Amino acid sequence: MAQTPSQEIKNTTCYMCACRCGIRVHLRDGEVRYIDGNPDHPINEGVICAKGASGIMKQHSPARLTQPLRRKAGAERGDGEFEPISWEETFEILSERLGHIRETDPKRFALFTGRDQMQALTGLFAKQFGTPNYAAHGGFCSVNMAAGMIYTIGGSFWEFGGPDLERSKLFVMIGTAEDHHSNPLKVAISKFKRQGGRFISINPVRTGYSAIADEWVPIRPGTDGALLLALIHEIMNKGLYDRDFLVRYSNAGQLVNMDEDSDAFGMFLREEAPPEEGCYDAQNQLWWDRKTGRPVTTHTPGADPYLLGEFTLQDGTRTKPSFQLLQDRVAEYTPEWAERITGISAKDIRRLAHEMGVTARDQRIELPIAWTDSWGEEHESVTGNPVSFHAMRGLAAHSNGFHTIRSLSILMSLLGTIDRPGGFRHKAPFPRPIPPCARTPKGPEGVQPGKPLDGMVLGWPASPDDLFVDDKGEPVRLDKAFSWEYPLAVHGMMHNAITNAWRGDPYPIDTLLIFMANMAWNSTMNTEEVRKMLNDKDDNGEYKIPFLVVADAFQSEMTAFADLILPDTTYLERHDVMSMLDRPISEFDGPVDSVRIPVVPPKGECKPFQEVLIELGSRLKLPAFVNDKGERKFRDYPDFVVNYETEPGSGIGFLAGWRGKGGEKSLRGEPNPNQWEMYAQNNCVFQYELPRSYQYMRNWNKGYLEWSQRNRITRFGEPILIHLYSEVLMKFRAAAQGKGPSRKAPAHLAKRVETFFDPLPFYYDPLEYQSTNKHTYPLAAITQRPMAMYHSWDSQNAWLRQIHAHNVLYVNSRTAKAAGIHDEDWIWVESQWGRVRCMAKYSEAVEPGTVWTWNAIGKAAGAWNLTPKANESRKGFLLNHLISEELPGDEGPISNSDPVTGQAAWYDVRVRIYKAEEGEPKETSPQFKSLKPYPGQSTRARVVNFFAGLGKR
Amino acid sequence: MTQLALVIDLNVCVGCHACVTSCKEWNTSGDAGPLVDQNPYDADPTGTFFNRVQSFEVGEYPNTETVHFPKSCLHCEEPPCVPVCPTGASYKRESDGIVLVDYDKCIGCKYCSWACPYGVREVDAESKVMTKCTLCVDRIYNEELPEWDRKPACVRACPTNARLYGDIHDPESVVSKAIREAGGYQLMPEWGSKPANHYLPRRKTQLTIREDEVERADNPLKIDSQLPKPGQEEPSLDDVTSW
Amino acid sequence: MHPAFSVIFLTTLIGAGQGLFLALFGAEALGLLGVLPAPSSEFLALGSVLALVFLVLGLVASFFHLGRPERAWRTATKWRTSWLSREVIVLPAFMGLVFLYGAAHWFGVNPALGTLPGEYPILATMLLGSLGALLAVVLYVTTAMIYACIKFLQEWHSPLTVVNYTVLGAASGFTLAAAYSAWAGVPLVTFTATIAVVLTLLGLATRVASLVRNSRIKAKSTVQTAIGVKHPRIQQKSQGFMGGSFNTREFFHHMSAAFLRAMKWIFLLGAFVIPALLLAIVLVTRIDPVGVLIAAFVIQYLGLVAERWFFFAQANHPQNIYYQSVG
Fold this sequence. Notes:
The complex is a heterotrimer of chains A (953), B (243) and C (327). Chain A is an alpha/beta fold. Chain A starts with 6 loop residues before the first strand and ends in a 9-residue tail after the last strand. Chain B has 243 residues and is an alpha+beta fold. Chain B has a single domain (4-200), classed as 2-Layer Sandwich (Alpha-Beta Plaits), CATH 3.30.70.20. In chain B, the strands form five sheets. In chain B, strands 10-1-11 form a three-stranded mixed β-sheet, covered by helices on one side. In chain B, strands 2-3 form a two-stranded antiparallel ribbon. In chain B, strands 4-5 form a two-stranded antiparallel sheet. In chain C, helix 1 runs antiparallel to helix 2 and helix 1 runs antiparallel to helix 4. Chain C has a single domain (5-322), classed as Formate dehydrogenase/DMSO reductase fold (Up-down Bundle). Chain C is built from ten helices and three strands; from the N terminus they run αααββααααβααα. Chains A and C meet through strand 32 of A and loops of C. Strand 37 of chain A pairs antiparallel with strand 2 of chain B.
């Protein structure tokens, strides 16, 4: 009789993308047999995606690294010639080198991480080490989305907030990558459509979610700002804004100093005595009251401000309300103007504006939930305007993205949809003050040998005084984030780290530690040159980036360049926390965090990167990781997670659930030795549901803000008014104009800062468009995200790569025919920075001025332990070769980024296409020398015949 | 008589392939497994899958619809693949209408696949027998699974709930209602194979706004366009004219 | 459809074997009636061996078509519904009869089993031969019906498929019989060659008829019915996988249209025109027929291999609508 294999189900959290769905891992005789969605998990409610259901093949991938590797003496970087070494030797090499750096010049160590989910720990490590040179992938992902919205409404999309599709009636999705927040959004869109909601998708390409939209509005890439400003124009023009909402909850009525000679020009007028300083908006601005005809403090009971008009104070100061300034700004942004830029007809723009405005106004939701606002007024109900939006990288990854996203935030605010039912809803820990309180050091004195960094590694500048620059205004950080060049680079600028380190601008470094970021391939712009930089040597024959350490679970293009490879575990082999200190998985109705708990043992000698950091932190005696005697404080990462507190006795740790000695406390409380077990017993997730009266209007909800303050989610309980007009931006502009009390911009950047730090959103062509001949390069080239593949991660997955083995360039059939290109012809795509050969495919679902391909399917030959003949390298290609990380500037190269936030401008590149010559090889170009398998990697099976629990058959 | 089936709602399918790999994952280690993958890390990887998601473009720019189209065995009520089978390996169950292959009887002659107009049967290159969607018979009656979990893997996985599952002969079932109310249809009806699986078409929500609806009596511009009166002290013609 | 060589050889080899047997039995019957010179038992026995060789080779070829040939015995079970099952029953039965028929002649065991009205004796070989001839025809039908019964393979779903399988198989068998007669020096060359010419020309007519019919077929299934979307312009952009699958390997010939056209002319010449000319030359001239007739058979056989290849390649399976584009 056949023996029944032992079956077991273990809960943990998925990591096949960044969604962090709850999964149930079914084991048969210890081997993963099946992974399905956990129905009791708030994120995915039991569903799973193509990637999540292919996790087994990740475990069995021959690309797995299994032991620490050192580049062989004499081998060049990029050749992939390695020899195994022990972990002990690895740690000795690292602690000696890093110890020396820390004691001499800590900024010569740089730590950059990719799509990791442990920024709380990696950031802590960098801060404790004392280096300012830390960032995660945010700068080249979607920092514009975070910054543009947080500097306007105090919250943002995805982890921090999203569309309330349960109650929405009209949903507008604009520039959304299908891999962001994917399962929750899929679940929500489906329910939304089934209950009769109207779904409009604005995107140059119709794939994925856009496919099921009721209306597809194709738009030219990089012109979303023009559309949004024209929508604002029309909504203001027709009076379709929610006046009551704007008056009470935004700075629409606040009076701005219009006295051009004044140092305070462009700043809000305020009551005389300033209250205590803190990272919040003091409530001392002025309205011009309609009833009394004179200026009063905002929110004076009974007062109602003028939103339009121009007023003169008794002292002769001319002033206008923010709303008037916004109206002045959008006056020229007519639908006809936007039609020429976006390609969307003025008629359609007007119709869209009317759909939004009328739906918001006429389909108002009222929930019988009593609540009290920050000014003490009691409301019997919560109301909402059921129009919601979702946007992501399509808006963000342009050099004009910050202002585009400010425009979107303002549009959402005009419609009265912020943290209200049916509109945009925050997720804890948001809303936060505008901007949030974290600050970096303010100058080079914050970086001292042997000491932790004097400030956060990443922060939210509220004024030029918060920049991280030296006396001359030069950057302290390697990536130049928080400098005058990119003042609000709040997620850092990883995309410039290698180029800057190679050039020694602003300074050379010694050791670069990269964690799970494929910086020699799809995560970098200008891939070919960056690969050369990684391998470039100075006149003495020393590498320009002397020591390169890469931590990853898989062999990749990047690992090939490493001097030292640290083999990481997969998500099924380790502990992780989706921490409130990083990016938790909160829901609209309250904070949520979650954990990963290993379900199978690590492969080979793989070690979770967190354990590496804790070991290193202990060896380097970084204060957070050792006790007073300098002894190791934490046994391992799980022990760290349980016992680490942000400050001794703070009661705030990496996990918010089951705190306190017996697990009786939430959010704050002393460490609980059984915290992991309690998470394990509760689906690996901690969910805190706020009282209903705290679930809405949280920017101005007294009860919520006090709750948030009591639980130390925020330091202050002041209301967070929407910044239609951004005084924060104005402070930078003033500094660039030589005005005001703060430090001043260096002369060569003054004009740039003055231009782009406009307190009101404005439209400009993406910077690369401005330096490209549009006749020579008439097309915009962008990527889209396939839903069955996450970044470059899954080409080593035997199932997922059957779905996307190579990529083609999708071209509108009319555009292609005009260029003499047939369906499936081999073509060249050329930008002013480079060219790639690939296959063209006709499409009717793409705007004719746009060409696109799936992101990161193309691979270098032999990478990810595929054979050199694999489709990924022979027919697949990378658009990155066409994109430069820098643009020519008057004073030398500047980053190809948004000038406000440093967001990498992935989607700004302009190209032309032409047919490849007859005799050319039918394979993509460029090609790279094929990589060989590394020591310790399993051999590539010729046939996989997977059946769990029987071993390999 | 029961006829179990899937109803696939094209109105919400976003083409994510969750049903494709969750099916593969369940079945490769299930009664039908293993399902082979050839050249898994080499050129032209290919393997046995019971379910595929395809994409079609309908219309011409800018009036284009992108249709994501999942397809697996349709469990026909008159399955043309069954009578042609010389061994009886291909059969339709009386009890629930599921069309199955008895892997022990199949000789791998592929004739049933020729007799299927839908292209949903695949010979496994390793076991050399015909394979296809089983509607997860090893799940839906599996008493080791809790009752809520006794559904096909693809149905459990689908993030947009685009895959409804039930008895299309029971007029009260969720699938029968969906077919009735949302215009469910069969593929290639011209062959009379009466697929049990149905598809639900795209449905559009439109919004019509008449011009006189754009502005309402309580338009805020009525308030905001009332600008303050100038102060009496401000200069006026009264100050300089005398006739 | 992807032309599978196992099936091409199966159908062409047994078709020729069946035809040869029909020729042998016809010659014997007409010999008994005195219409033709009676062939010797030895000639008929050796001829039966030759027919069996073709049948066995065909059977062997068929096994290459099966994924699990060791289970082939199971195939006889579903004769009520499956033409394939019926073929699998009829083929060995026919082979058995050919064997018995040949053995009876070889061993000269040919008792009269009774008499018919008019005192015609019922010889054992005549009974075996009649049953064999009947099964030969039934076998043509069962073989052809495997293809003709699939209604959505519109190129196949026609009585012409049965006619062609029968006539073409018989024509090649009679050509083979003519070559065999000439080689054996038996005066049956004129009889067999004449019938071969007639069948070949008849086959040309019926095959051309099916070509004409197939060129006018309007596919009942379209991408519109395949996905149920009613719009004149629908294009697949992704079939859902990129490295191929059973569905892209089994149902597509992966050859160019030009290759297909060339194949058509090759089989029209090879299966019909050239053999008919060679047979005619033998009939109307005094040329030594052995070499010419052997050549005629070889060319006709190869022509029929091409014809069968084309038969599969031309069949457009509606499932192909679902597998049009890699992307």
